Structures are given as structure tokens and as C-alpha cells.
Fold this sequence. Notes:
Layout: H1 2-23, E1 28-32, E2 38-40, E3 48-54, E4 58-65, E5 71-80, E6 86-89, E7 100-106, E8 109-117, E9 123-133, E10 136-145, E11 148-158
Antiparallel strand pairs: 1-3, 1-11, 2-11, 3-4, 4-5, 5-6, 6-7, 7-8, 8-9, 9-10, 10-11
Amino acid sequence: MRVVLLLIALLVLPVAARAQDALAPFYGKWTEVEGSVRQTPPGRVDDIAVEIGKSATGFYIASYQTRSTTRIASSLSFRLTALPNVWRIEGQGDPTAEATGWARVDGPRLYIDLITLDKDGSADYQSFVRTVSGSTMTLDFRRLRNGELVRRVDAELKR
């Protein structure tokens, strides 16, 4: 039994360590570069600020609204899956009550996909693609409702 547990630990721990290494460039507090936000359709956008950090089981991401007062607008925790560089939202449950989603890292890009369902079963899909280069992050956000583009936001953030 001890041998089996040791073998499992030897196989799982390096995967978890590599996954955390893949996230390292994304960790930190990121704030919008003034004038960099482009939105479709045009409209008011709260200032963009986000924090990405390491957690005991994976990583967390917290988005902040900073127009009038700084407060957390949303926060999600992700847990590493058996797939390399792929995480799922911790505590995923009923998609009609909360978002279900996953994240993956592919080189300099962090992809986060979220799905929620309304009471009538309509699907709301959000896609966040964050690309890091040094101390700059670009954000490409898209929100689709029943397959139709509702909103797109592109922005540049600095650490």
C-alpha cells in the first residue's frame, strides 16, 4: 500500500508543480492601462482590475470594480484537474445556480471559459483570454447569449 501511495505521489506532484509554474507569469495585481479599453457595443465600462494568485489547490482570480470605490466584483477559485495545465472551478454544481467553468494555460495565454444557465435554460457563455508578455497583459473578453455575441471587451493591463 505504501508503495502505491509513493508511486501516486511521484506521478501527481510533478504535474501539480509544472501546472503552478505555467501559471507563474499570470500571478499578481493587474490594472487597466488608461485609454486601452475597446468595447462592443460601446458603453460604460468599469475600470478593469484583476488579481491572480496561487491557492492551496490551484489558483484564484478576483476581479475588482474601481470606478467609484474599490470592491470585489467577482472571485473564482480553480482546482487542478488530471489534465496537464487544466483547472476547473472549485465546488462546481448546478449551472442554473452558479457558473460552471474551466481554465487552461497554453504558453503565454490563460483561457477561462464560464457557462451559466438562466431559469429558462438560456445559455450565457463568457470567454476570457489573457495573454502575458513581461509586465503587460492583454484581455480579450467575449460574452455570448444563446450563441449570439452580446459584448466584447479588449484591454491592456499592467502589473
